[in-house]
UniProtKB/TrEMBL annotation:
It comes from the Bacteria. Catalyzes the reversible oxidation of 3-phospho-D-glycerate to 3-phosphonooxypyruvate, the first step of the phosphorylated L-serine biosynthesis pathway. Also catalyzes the reversible oxidation of 2-hydroxyglutarate to 2-oxoglutarate. Pfam families: 2-Hacid_dh, 2-Hacid_dh_C. It catalyses: (R)-2-hydroxyglutarate + NAD(+) = 2-oxoglutarate + NADH + H(+); (2R)-3-phosphoglycerate + NAD(+) = 3-phosphooxypyruvate + NADH + H(+). Keywords: NAD, Oxidoreductase. InterPro entries: ACT-like_dom_sf, ACT_dom, D-isomer_2_OHA_DH_cat_dom, D-isomer_DH_CS1, D-isomer_DH_NAD-bd, NAD(P)-bd_dom_sf. Its EC number is 1.1.1.399, 1.1.1.95. Pathway: Amino-acid biosynthesis; L-serine biosynthesis; L-serine from 3-phospho-D-glycerate: step 1/3. GO terms for molecular function: NAD binding; phosphoglycerate dehydrogenase activity. It comes from Pseudohalioglobus sediminis. SUPFAM superfamilies: ACT-like (SSF55021), Formate/glycerate dehydrogenase catalytic domain-like (SSF52283), NAD(P)-binding Rossmann-fold domains (SSF51735). Belongs to the D-isomer specific 2-hydroxyacid dehydrogenase family. This is D-3-phosphoglycerate dehydrogenase.
Amino acid sequence: MAKQILTLNQISLKGLERLPRDCYEVASEFAHPHAILLRSHKLKIEDIPASVLAIGRAGAGTNNIPVAECSKRGIPVFNSPGANANAVKELVAAGLLLGSRGIIDGIQYVDTLADMTDKAEMNKVLEAQKKQFKGSELVGKTLGVVGLGAIGSLVAEMALTLGMDVVGYDPALSVEAAWRLSSQVRKADNLSALFARCDYITLHLPVLDATRGLVNAELLSAVRKGTCLLNFARQEIVDEEALVAALDGDQLRQYIADFPSPALIGRDDVILMPHIGASTEEAEDNCAIMAAEQIRDFLENGNISNSVNFPNLTLERVSGCRLSVTNENVPKILGSVLSILADENINVIDMLNKSRNEIAYNLIDIESHASESVLDKMRALDGVVNVRLIGDCA
Ligand SMILES: NC(=O)c1ccc[n+]([C@@H]2O[C@H](COP(=O)([O-])OP(=O)(O)OC[C@H]3O[C@@H](n4cnc5c(N)ncnc54)[C@H](O)[C@@H]3O)[C@@H](O)[C@H]2O)c1
Ligand SMILES: O=C(O)[C@H](O)COP(=O)(O)O
């Protein structure tokens, strides 16, 4: 039977092509889908049918998905780390240029000359007026990068090539990300220190309980007058009331963001884009391909790559049937699962077990078929969240 994949946003065809039509049906409406593919669609736990085994976010941020509740239901949530990082980096480059030069005002001014028919006169007028649109250069200015993951590290690199000094802050920097980072990026010991020494500050961290409203009145009061804040991460990271006060009080010179809001639209000191950081053909393809391949590998093999709530785990498929077991990360459960197999004389060929926070996940390759009643015995064990028979014998 073909597996059904429910799409809740437009997902690039290049990604959907990774789900072959003889094994998968893809549509925006299914009552009992096996998996969900989405982008920024706000997903509520009550809207996830009981049939769903996995959720793939074709993108980076998973704050639109009820990840903690999915964990409780044993549903791995995948994302596409780094797949749209270049797209965001390029838009941040545009943001820095928009924040340093009179580009938007200059373009709007030129539009006001539309009724002039005399080219020479037009030239005279604009040459006299262009002083209004004078900017300053980025070279030699200091950029603070908050969050040095996939996007932040590329932004830091890009800013260095523009001749900027770069200061970074990331309290949870992964070893992999640290390797990617140029040694020219200077480290700020804390956020206030970074905010106090930059001409431009750009945010590239996820919205979590710990980062919601992180950029607050206290931090904004630390900035040097004339600082420009760029937010291509998430609206919720910046406390909007404090932001408006900092702009009104001329503490911040400008706010450039990918997240419009009624309180900010129409202000001279704010440039807003309609959440287009990842809206390039390349990023949409990359994200969709990564998400679709991860979902497929999970549905067909139980393997997990780039999950935000489950451990990464890949077990090479050799032969036999495969069981995937998700359980609470407490002692004795795996032993009880294996005892059930032993009681049924089912031989285990290969096995992998990993845990992450409160979840433990196991792949168990068995030599012979396990019946539904055997699976039900496992499901009945205290602490077992779900059991699935995968592959040829499923
Ligand atoms: N505008 C867009 O269209 C767009 C596109 C992609 C991603 N995003 C947003 O950007 C975020 C970052 O994306 P990414 O791909 O770089 O993710 P990433 O996971 O590679 O990097 C995020 C980094 O933020 C760091 N971090 C966590 N808490 C922090 C804190 N309190 N202070 C400083 N750093 C902290 C992490 O350690 C990590 O290194 C996403 O979570 C998403 O919300 C927006
Ligand atoms: O977190 C992300 O990847 C971005 O916000 C992109 O969102 P989108 O896929 O809806 O463009």
